[in-house]
Amino acid sequence: MKYFKDIDNFVKDKMVYCGIDVHQSRWNLCYFCDGEVVEKLRIHGESDLLNKHTQRLFGQAKSVKFVYEAGFSGSWLHRRLTDLGYECIITPPSRIPTTNDKVKTDKKDAEKLARYLAGGLLKKVFVLPPSVEADRQLIRLRAGYKIKMTRVKNQMTSLLHLHDLKWNPENGCRWTKRFVSWLEEVEFPEHNLRIVLNQYLIEYRSLRDQIAQITKHIRKLSRQNEYQKYFKILISCKGIGLITAITFLLELGDVLRFPSTVQFGGFLGLTPSQHTSGDKIRLGHITHEGNAHIRRVLIESAWTVIRYDPFLREKYDRIKSRGTNGKKAIVAVARSLAIRLRQCLIHPRCKNLILDLTTRAYKEGSNEPDDYGDVGHMTDALGYIVHRRFPVKFRREGIPKVHLWAS
Questions:
Q1: What range defines the domain where residue 390 resides?
Q2: Helix axes 225-235, 191-222, angle to 10 degrees
Q3: Is 66 helix (H, G, I), strand (E, B) or coil?
Q4: Domain boundary among 193, 222, 251
Q5: Which of 32, 220, 245, 327 has a beta carbon 3.0–4.6 Å from 114's, enabling a disulfide?
Q6: Residues 111, 19: contact at Cβ < 8 Å?
Q7: d(C-alpha 4, C-alpha 13), whole Å
Q8: What CATH number does residue 53 fall under?
Q9: Do 84 and 164 sit in the same domain of this protein?
Q10: Pick from 215, 212, 204, 207: which is nearest to 138 by CA?
Q11: Residue 124 lies in a domain
Q12: pLDDT per residue over 299-353, tens digit each?
């Protein structure tokens, strides 16, 4: 590393890249310019102090670009630096190029970020608007409560199994009002076990009431002007309900930021991992990268969708018939469902076309297709477009080979 006595002259009219290793109380900074590490600092975790040091040392630079890893600090620092006129990106830690260094320190991490940023090797995280990010916290709060409720249910179920106390299935499903009333009256051989179950029931009721209250707020959220239009489009698809639709909208943000379905599938983490060498192609489990919240609700909804959609049901049965389990098949269905929902948001009127392409209607009592429905001619119109773009050669008796709509 070179030590520069006159930083102003060295960085004058040049781009400066700064890597920030963010921690709760202190930040490590590394400024990189023209292939050289210009300055390393350790400061208190304050955006005003960061701006002060940057203006003092690099006021003559053309511009300063910052980068830090996505993590506990969220995106508030990104917004502060952007408001101050700087360019800043948040990079996902899983996408940072790895090295085989045996020594890892905060200073080295900051320098690595600055060097990779200067080389254009870092990906950036999409930063949601503050209002959308605040709304997203609401659905994540509900998801957290649902996880806690599932844990409490499992604890109560384990306690019953431990003492051979069984619910009669003829009395109905579990976790209904009748089942909870039975839990309140069940008798244990020891008094302390009754106290334990009562505490579980208190926690269960509290979580149930909180989830119900949050669900009301989410329902109001879906009626807001910025979400109402696209929310109605999503719930018009069978199997997509309130939570899945609003989670899809809030976690996804701007759907147009994915130019292809390949990138969209990679964001969801529903594409299989791959290890290819030579002629050998090995596909593994899904990557699990990207947004886990959308992935979770899509897989939950996929189990419902296959009961109504014949196309996705056929895909599920076909994959399962290969000898794989239903979980792998439902993941493939979830990816197809996600791509379909994306198309509905990009082209809202394609919902009817998708329905027509995946549904075959016949006249009553015959095998002849029924073309007189509301969307029955949409596939015909699509066929005309495809045929004009890709003309088909054909030959009839007495007619030479020609192109349809050949220009």
A1: 377-407
A2: 110
A3: strand
A4: 222
A5: 32
A6: yes
A7: 16
A8: 3.30.420.40
A9: no
A10: 215
A11: no
A12: 999 999 999 999 999 999 999 998 888 888 999 999 999 999 998 888 755 555 5
pLDDT tens digits, residue range 265-274?
A: 888 988 888 8
Provide the pairing of β-strand 15-22 with 63-69. parallel
First to last CA, the chain: 66
Distance CA 263, CA 117 (A): 22
Tell me the Cα Rg of the chain: 29
Contact 112, 91 (CB under 8 A): no
Residue 363 lies in a domain: no
Q: The pTM is what?
A: 0.78
Looking at the structure, tell me whether residues 15 and 114 fall in a common domain: yes
Residue 297 sits in the same domain as residue 336: yes
| Amino acid identity at 29 | L
Burial 122-140 (b: 16+ CB within 10 A, else e): beeeebbeeebbebbebbe
What per-residue string of b and e applies to 82-105 under the rule 16 or more CB within 10 Å gives b? Answer: eeeebebbbbeeeebeeeeeeeee
Q: Provide the β-strand partners of residue 43.
A: 27
Contact, 71 vs 94, CB < 8 A? no
Beta-strand relationship, 36-44 and 15-22: unpaired
Please give the Cα distance from 168 to 335 (Å, whole number).
38
> For residues 96 and 70, what is the distance between their CA atoms, to the nearest angstrom?
11
User: Which among 8, 23, 13, 91 has a CA at the least distance from the CA of 54?
Assistant: 8
Listed in sequence order, the residues at least 6 apart from 303 whose beta carbon sits closer than 8 Å to its beta carbon are: 330
